[in-house]
Specification:
Elements (H helix, E strand, L loop, with lengths): L13 E7 L2 E6 H6 L3 E9 L13 E9 L6
Antiparallel strand pairs: 1-2, 3-4
């Protein structure tokens, strides 16, 4: 979900992953750990967004596409 700065309270388990178009992207640390060997892309597509998120009035939603990364064998 997308919130205006200051409208979502980050917790001690949240970790900043990076930025998308100048906006900070945060994820739960445990979820980030589980996705450590995954390549993922955050995309915006047409469709109904989450009701509390900024994308809802725009009739778009966020979609994360992912694929497992190959781990080289030793």
């Amino acid at each position: 979900m997308c919130f205006q700065v200051g409208e979502f309270r980050l917790g001690s388990v949240d970790e900043k992953v990076g930025e998308i178009a100048g906006c900070e992207f945060w994820m739960d640390r445990e979820q980030l750990r589980r996705w450590a060997h995954t390549s993922w892309t955050v995309d915006v597509v047409s469709g109904r967004g989450a009701s509390f998120s900024l994308e809802a009035p725009l009739n778009v939603r966020f979609l994360i596409r992912s694929a497992l990364c190959e781990i080289p064998s030793s």
